[in-house]
Amino acid sequence: MALSRADTSVLGRWWWTVDRWTLAALMMLVGFGYVMLLAASPGVAERIGASSRDLFILKQVFFLAVSVGVIVVISLLPVRQVRRLALIGFGGALFMTAATLYMGVEIKGARRWLHLPGMTIQPSEFLKPCFAVVAAWLLSETRSIGWRATVAACFLFLLVAGVLVKQPDMGMLIVVGAVFCAQLFVSGINMMVVAACGASGVLGGIAAYFALPHFRSRIDRFLNPESGDTYQVTIAMEAFGHGGMLGVGPGEGRLKGLLPDAHADFVFAVAGEEFGLAICLLILAVFGFIVLRGLLRLLGEKDMFIILSATGLLTQFGLQAFINMASTLHLIPTKGMTLPFISYGGSSVVAVALGMGMLLALTRRRLMRTDAA
């Protein structure tokens, strides 16, 4: 892109202030998502009896294109507008997430989706990035209005946690809880409070183990594979072994046809079979680069709202990628969580794009921070 530093247009100012390395890494992930869509989706479309295999693929291509537009458009916003967008998005996403308890579509014993004309949406996906920014705003106000801001942030977290437990979606709750704990830690809150939050999380996990049969089943199958069905994890591990270092080649994978969620939760196994360990390590490196680059970008930052927002968004992004890849590799109990920009799913890819767009907007270099007020 040939834009002069003297260009004072909106696009020109954006190009010379946005973190172009992170933007390039995100576009690389979108490219991986497109390649993996072509590799994993056709077989899935045939297996589930989709009316048109091409339509099944084009639908995700559309969402990938939308995600690129969302990243760019949101990254153009000033800090103040990012905060306003997050507040509006949080309110709407929380309302819709609560609505799933009464009007949601039940799949595998959980109500997490709403049917809209022509599509199904998972509102909690949009709740994650918006909550991270709203919580950061409240925690950053603690220095000016006192402990009431922290109490308000904790109240919103408990509200979100209550809705997620009712769905239930323990994986989403773990991510949101980790984001909030990371923000509390970075905000400089008393370590006793952080320790109490961690202890509450452990106790909550124990309670969920005894109260939620599906949660207990996943833990038991991880600790003792013979205690239940581990079909998908077993096939996924075989796929990695079959792929070896360089893979069997694009479209040549045979085990992906045996994975019901090859296009979504277990897309990393498809990458391992067809492209090998080398590409899997490259994907891991890109995720790691985005998180580390974002944290390094904050080293010279003095605005606490920006620091906390970016910390939350990066924690969410990195943890979601870790959970997907680690569960596919049987390093942690299986969890139905998508790999950002690579797994199939419209709500997921657009919601992650929203979060990354806000991250790029918040970390743009500015000569003055007047827009952060």
From TrEMBL:
Cross-referenced InterPro entries: FtsW/RodA (IPR001182)
UniProt GO cellular component terms: cell division site; plasma membrane
GO MF, one annotated term: lipid-linked peptidoglycan transporter activity
Transmembrane segments: 20-40, 61-79, 85-105, 145-164, 170-186, 275-292, 304-323, 343-362
Chief site of localization: membrane
Membrane topology according to the record: Multi-pass membrane protein
GO biological process terms on file: cell division; peptidoglycan biosynthetic process; regulation of cell shape
UniProt keyword annotations, A-Z: Cell cycle, Cell division, Cell shape, Glycosyltransferase, Membrane, Peptidoglycan synthesis, Transferase, Transmembrane, Transmembrane helix
Catalytic activity from the UniProt record: [GlcNAc-(1->4)-Mur2Ac(oyl-L-Ala-gamma-D-Glu-L-Lys-D-Ala-D-Ala)](n)-di-trans,octa-cis-undecaprenyl diphosphate + beta-D-GlcNAc-(1->4)-Mur2Ac(oyl-L-Ala-gamma-D-Glu-L-Lys-D-Ala-D-Ala)-di-trans,octa-cis-undecaprenyl diphosphate = [GlcNAc-(1->4)-Mur2Ac(oyl-L-Ala-gamma-D-Glu-L-Lys-D-Ala-D-Ala)](n+1)-di-trans,octa-cis-undecaprenyl diphosphate + di-trans,octa-cis-undecaprenyl diphosphate + H(+)
Record-listed E.C. numbers: 2.4.99.28
Subcellular location(s) per record: Membrane
Family: Belongs to the SEDS family. FtsW subfamily.
Record's protein name: Probable peptidoglycan glycosyltransferase FtsW
Annotated source species: Teichococcus oryzae
Lineage summary: Bacteria, Pseudomonadati, Pseudomonadota, Alphaproteobacteria, Acetobacterales
